[in-house]
Amino acid sequence: MATLIGGLGTSHIPAIGGAIHKNLQQEPYWKPFFDGFPPIHQWLDKAQPDVVVMFYNDHGLNFFLDKMPTFAVGAAPLYHNADEGWGIPTLPPFKGEIDLSWHIINTLTGKEFDVTTCQEMLVDHACTLPLKLFWPKGECPVTVVPICINTVQFPLPSAKRVYALGRAVGEAIQSWGSDKKVAVIASGGLSHQLDGERAGFINKEFDLQFMESLLTNPEWATQYSIHELVEKSGTQGIELLMWLAMRAALTVGDKPSVRKIHSNYHIPISNTATAVLVLEKV
Ligand code: DHB
Ligand code: FE
């Protein structure tokens, strides 16, 4: 069976792509964010995942308001980046892992999750940036199964439902008949609100409590409704649902099954609180 080795989380602000493209990582504005990554690169060098399953949210590129699946699983051989701008201008498409895609789709459907299956799927900065941040040099060495969770148009899935989805995806990965090593990625967050009366809203206290809960009490955030989570984290901060799914995927039974390798938290990039985290499965 495949081995689930751990989970990684990162924010995915489009301007990060511009900073990578222009080589600004050591500039004072960017350094505190990019300094979060070398320990993660060291861990990845050792852990060497072959495949990543990425929880992310599309921002109106592949799914627009006319058709908005709650949960969508990619089952494509290649994922093309067609970002709306600001990001990395030229990224080659990255490779899918179709066998795992269908194993996840079948497992989720068997567990009564009604998912949208996508044999073609354009991906935006939410999908491309984590790969470029975690593997900055050369070609991306992992294949990918993107899982899109709607955080764009209400109604959104509850935190409890997202946690259950993450659990089921973790079980699917660990029952995949393959000798490959798999990591789970969460792309998004943390607290931010880009528009409306609260534009610029950031909630450091809540973010740090949420990150801590992923270690000590992973279901903590499921006590809150979506509206409570938006109130605490901002309209787009609700992308923290991805982190919840990633953490849930690493849970087996009732065991506290992870140890923290590294985390970083920095305010702000753009209007956003940024965070990175690596959890190794034990
Ligand atoms: C921005 C966009 C995002 O998708 C996000 O998650 C955070 C910030 C931005 O445009 O600044
Ligand atoms: Fe986003």
Q: What's the SSE blueprint?
A:
Layout (H helix, E strand, L loop, with lengths): L2 E8 L3 H8 L9 H4 L3 H10 L3 E6 L14 E4 L3 E4 L12 E2 L2 H13 L5 E3 L3 E2 L1 H10 L8 E7 L9 H16 L6 E7 L16 H13 L9 H8 L6 H10 L8 E12 L2 E10 L1
Parallel strand pairs: 1-9, 2-8, 2-9, 3-6, 4-7
Antiparallel strand pairs: 1-11, 3-8, 4-5, 10-11
Helix pairs in contact: 4-6, 6-9
The structure holds 3,4-dihydroxybenzoic acid and fe (iii) ion.
The site of 3,4-dihydroxybenzoic acid (DHB) has 12 residues, from loops.
Shape: globular
Rg (CA only): 17 Å
Helix fraction? 25-40%
In whole angstroms, the N-to-C terminal distance is 17 Å
Domain unit count: 1
Q: Which regions are unreliable across 5 or more consecutive residues at pLDDT < 50?
A: none
* Biggest pleated sheet: 8 strands, mixed
Return the string of H and E elements: EHHHEEEEHEEHEHEHHHEE
Biggest sheet, spatial arrangement of strands: 6-3-8-2-9-1-11-10
What structural category arises from helix and sheet content?
A: alpha/beta
- Which CATH-level-2 architecture? 3-Layer(aba) Sandwich
Number of helices: 9
- Looking at CATH, the homologous superfamily is LigB-like
- What hetero molecules are in the model? 3,4-dihydroxybenzoic acid, fe (iii) ion
CATH top level class name: Alpha Beta
- The third-level CATH topology is Protocatechuate 4,5-dioxygenase, Chain B
* Secondary structure tally: strands: 11
**How much of the sequence is in beta strands?**
15-25%
